[in-house]
């Protein structure tokens, strides 16, 4: 017993020496500056409940590239547009890897899919891009139009009853049902109870996954705690595979359908099955992971964008009215807005961009790991560093955005700023950016064409940015008044 205790104490002692030495040693004369790290936890205590706000404030003291210690993890925080371009465009091969924290490992399927890094990533990304280009544009637009029509019809019950509309549930249902149709050619009924069924189940699962990987946990970053945190995560083993199993069941069903009927492919899953064209079990896992990645990314970020846009339009009734007047001038007597109308609605397009800018809905993107030592603009970045892009600081930089704290859609009327990167850049940029922007445009434009929206008490809604992979507001409801 004593020998085991002595061994544990020795392990802790060695860890403390190694951890503290790494934090306090100077690599070169070109080291990045940053706040003083504490033993073991590094700078985790500096981040607070809203790390995106904290990291924006740290720019004022340490500049547009600085270092933090997330526990034992040396982290480089960047908000300089030139350095971001240098990293993502000229050093892509050095930044292909994602950090494999216990949380990420627990929620991912090893090296499969496109969100994490692996030797299979290039092929998976190439396959996904190829099949997305094969989807007929007219069929894609019709699919989104059908979802919009179902959505508008579903609003009538709220309009007739006077019941307030729960925005988060409605936005999630719309984006999720659209992605279901796109990926599986499967319709989610708008008659389904909003608090039960597939939408409620998947929304709850999404919330769990994003809370696990998006907030940051001490056990992900302190080396000596990682084995214990991994053991702790095992209690959720029954919950994590829900999404993967959900997609895998549809994969098996579609494989059998294609084999027996040999019918023409009409959804992302069918096209991926035909493109991979193999019985290899690893490829099957890639297909399932790719579909799940698309389902997760295509549901949560667009739905949070819808929430924030609706909240800002409720709080700025004058801007909402200007958007409505612009849309009405364009559509005339038509009862719906089409994607072809988008070039003719520059003010509304600017509103959507301003929402993404001011709230920086994806504040840091997904971190990356440097796989070699880099000298960048005179700064030394050691191999193994975690790199995060501080999109919030970039979006609130006075050099690019005058009065950045003001909600002002006019700033985008004459074009986008060079610092506006809503879908990132480089080879790992957002693969579904066109689909996402189309979903957002059609939902909001048709909502505003049909209804004036307001808060329940006609008072401004609270703006509280809750931190995660995606920044979300507090849940809220709105009242619909028919135009």
CATH superfamily: Cytochrome P450
> What's the CATH class, please?
Mainly Alpha
Number of helices: 18
Can you count the beta strands?
9
State the low-pLDDT regions, or none: none
Rough outline: globular
Order of helices and strands: HHHEEHHHHEHHHHHHHHHEEEEHHEE
CATH topology: Cytochrome p450
Report how far apart the termini are: 77 Å
Major beta sheet summary: 4 strands, mixed
Signal peptide: 1-19
GO cellular component, one term: membrane
GO molecular function: heme binding; iron ion binding; oxidoreductase activity, acting on paired donors, with incorporation or reduction of molecular oxygen, reduced flavin or flavoprotein as one donor, and incorporation of one atom of oxygen
Binding site for heme: 430
What do you see in this structure?
GO terms for molecular function: heme binding; iron ion binding; oxidoreductase activity, acting on paired donors, with incorporation or reduction of molecular oxygen, reduced flavin or flavoprotein as one donor, and incorporation of one atom of oxygen. Helix 13 (268-276) runs antiparallel to helix 14 (281-315), helix 14 (281-315) packs across helix 16 and helix 14 runs parallel beside helix 18. By secondary structure, this protein is of the alpha+beta class. The longest helix has 35 residues, at 281-315. It has helices spanning 2-24, 44-47, 51-62, 81-90, 102-107, 121-134, 137-161, 167-184, 197-214, 218-221, 226-233, 241-261, 268-276, 281-315, 317-331, 346-359, 391-395, 433-450, and strands at 65-70, 73-78, 165-166, 368-369, 374-376, 379-381, 386-389, 451-455, 477-482. The strands form 3 sheets. It has a 4-stranded mixed β-sheet. The protein has a 3-stranded antiparallel β-sheet with strand order 3-9-8. A two-stranded antiparallel ribbon has the order 5-6. A hairpin with a 2-residue loop joins strand 1 (65-70) and strand 2 (73-78). The chain has one domain (2-482): Cytochrome p450 (Orthogonal Bundle), CATH 1.10.630.10. The chain contains 18 helices and 9 strands.
């Amino acid at each position: 017993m004593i020998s085991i205790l002595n061994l544990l104490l020795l392990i802790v002692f060695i860890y403390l020496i190694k951890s503290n030495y790494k934090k306090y040693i100077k690599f070169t004369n070109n080291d990045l500056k940053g706040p003083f790290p504490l033993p073991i936890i590094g700078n985790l205590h500096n981040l607070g409940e809203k790390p995106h706000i904290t990291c924006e404030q740290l720019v004022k003291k340490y500049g547009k590239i600085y270092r933090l210690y997330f526990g034992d993890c040396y982290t480089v925080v960047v908000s300089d547009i030139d350095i971001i371009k240098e990293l993502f465009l000229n050093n892509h091969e050095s930044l292909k890897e994602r950090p494999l924290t216990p949380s990420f490992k627990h929620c991912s399927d090893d090296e499969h899919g496109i969100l994490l890094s692996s030797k299979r990533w290039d092929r998976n990304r190439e396959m996904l891009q190829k099949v997305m280009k094969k989807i007929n544009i007219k069929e894609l637009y019709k699919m989104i139009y059908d979802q919009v029509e179902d959505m508008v019809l579903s609003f009538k019950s709220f309009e007739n009853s006077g019941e307030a509309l729960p925005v988060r549930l409605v936005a999630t249902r719309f984006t999720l049902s659209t992605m279901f149709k796109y990926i599986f050619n499967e319709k989610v009924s708008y008659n389904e109870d909003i608090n039960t069924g597939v939408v409620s189940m998947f929304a709850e699962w999404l919330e769990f996954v994003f809370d696990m990987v998006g907030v940051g946990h001490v056990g992900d970053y302190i080396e000596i705690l990682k084995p214990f945190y991994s053991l702790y995560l095992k209690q959720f083993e029954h919950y994590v595979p829900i999404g993967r199993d959900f997609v895998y069941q549809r994969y098996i069903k579609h494989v059998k359908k294609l084999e027996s009927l040999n019918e023409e492919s009409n959804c992302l899953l069918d096209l991926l099955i035909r493109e991979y064209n193999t019985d290899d079990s690893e490829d099957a896992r890639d297909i399932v992971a790719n579909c799940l990645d698309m389902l997760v990314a295509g549901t949560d970020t667009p739905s949070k964008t819808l929430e924030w846009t609706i909240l800002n339009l409720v709080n700025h009734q004058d801007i909402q009215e200007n958007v409505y007047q612009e849309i009405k001038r364009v559509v005339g007597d038509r009862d719906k807005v089409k994607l072809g109308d988008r070039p003719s609605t520059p003010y509304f397009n600017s509103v959507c961009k301003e929402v993404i800018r001011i709230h920086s809905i994806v504040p840091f993107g997904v971190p990356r790991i440097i796989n070699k030592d880099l000298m960048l603009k005179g700064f030394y970045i050691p191999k193994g560093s975690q790199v995060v892009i501080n999109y919030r600081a970039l979006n609130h930089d006075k050099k690019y955005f005058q009065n950045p704290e003001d909600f002002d859609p006019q700033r985008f009327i004459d074009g986008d700023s060079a610092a506006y990167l809503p879908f990132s850049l480089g080879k790992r940029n957002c693969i579904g950016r066109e689909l996402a922007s189309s979903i957002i445009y059609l939902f909001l434009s048709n909502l505003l064409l049909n209804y004036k929206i307001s808060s329940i008490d006609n008072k401004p809604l609270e703006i509280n940015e809750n931190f995660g992979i995606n920044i979300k507001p507090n849940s809220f409801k709105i009242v619909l008044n028919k135009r």
